[in-house]
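Thread: Modeling a multi-component assembly for a lab meeting

Hi all, long-time lurker, first post. My supervisor asked me to bring a structural picture of a complex we are working on to next week's group meeting, and I have zero experience with this. I have the sequence lines for every component (386 residues in total). Could someone generate the structure of the whole assembly? Inputs are pasted exactly as I received them:
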Amino acid sequence: MSAPPAYTEFHPRWYRAPVRTLWWLRRRSYFVFILRELSSVFVAWFVVFLLLLAHAVGRGDREYQRFLRWADDPWVIAINVIALLFVVFHALTWFNLTPKAMVVRLRGTRVPPLGLTAPIYLIWAAVSALVAWLVLGG
Amino acid sequence: MMGDTITMQVSRYRPEQEAQPTVQEYQVPLRKYWAVLDGLNHIKDHQDGTLSYRWSCRMGICGSCGMTVNGEPKLTCATFLTDYDPGPVRVEPLSNFPVIKDLVVEIGDFLRKLPRVRPWIIRVEDKPVSEGEYLQTPEQLDEYKQFSMCINCMLCYSACPVYGLDPQFIGPAAIALAQRYNLDSRDEGAADRLDTLIHPDGIWGCTFVGECTRACPKDVDPAGAIQRYKLTAAIQSIKALVLPRGTR
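Re: Modeling a multi-component assembly
Sure thing. I ran the full set together rather than chain by chain. Output:
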């Protein structure tokens, strides 16, 4: 016997299981969900990084060179590598969601999920290749 | 080799006697076609008549016997003891709901949410019975049939971490059922459901964990229904912003 029951309107005391702090480690999908929520922080980081870059470029060559030296710092590179991994993960979850959200019909029949995700991945690869060529080779 | 018996660890909660649930072990016969529910019925009939749980049809249609079996939300009538051999099988009430007694949970929250999405056919003008039925082609039926398979068993609510963290979230089944009527060619109530669905406690609460779809015993795919409606709602909002009134 423990504490005396408190009564609700229709029933003796209901038991509400507390949500544990580490509930998101219980299941892989919950963990992935938390990672995905966290990825938004890194998306925001890239926005800030881009704004800082634009700001430096706007203030002339000296500021731009200073920005480049700062961006060369090992810890900035480390943050950017982690951020890139999170942003790629963020993008993949969106790509994989697309066939769930979109129902596309071609001549009356529904396009299978792969028919929607495959073009997205192809376009992604093409755009990435173009950007890589511009930055590294062009 | 299948044993003769299997251990069932059943969560007990007697609100008049204890502050939180405890686990009680029972040995039940392990038979080839026995579901977890048959094990519970055996306990109730032969070992302990005080055990409380809900069930009705035993064939995956009534949606009453949802419980947590070894950590997963399951219909106990469609979950077989032999799949857990040599055991033990842990049976707990559905998570994310308050427990009334033993394996019985309080479902009032879901029952209050369900009518908010108006899950019935809404017509601007009903045609008289003398004019006959509202006809529908097989293709039009296919549009919503999957979502109409929902049996309100609430396994999706039990699996959904968003609902667990924020009980205001209207939840997977309610949204899937709203879509079931939105996609029905006989229905004209999509605009009436819009406000409830695009409320912050509606579709935008969902972060696409996808566990509802995995838990669903009827392959309804509530996660798919929600993502689909997000796109519809987003297009609707853009139209409302861009297009002049009357052309929307």
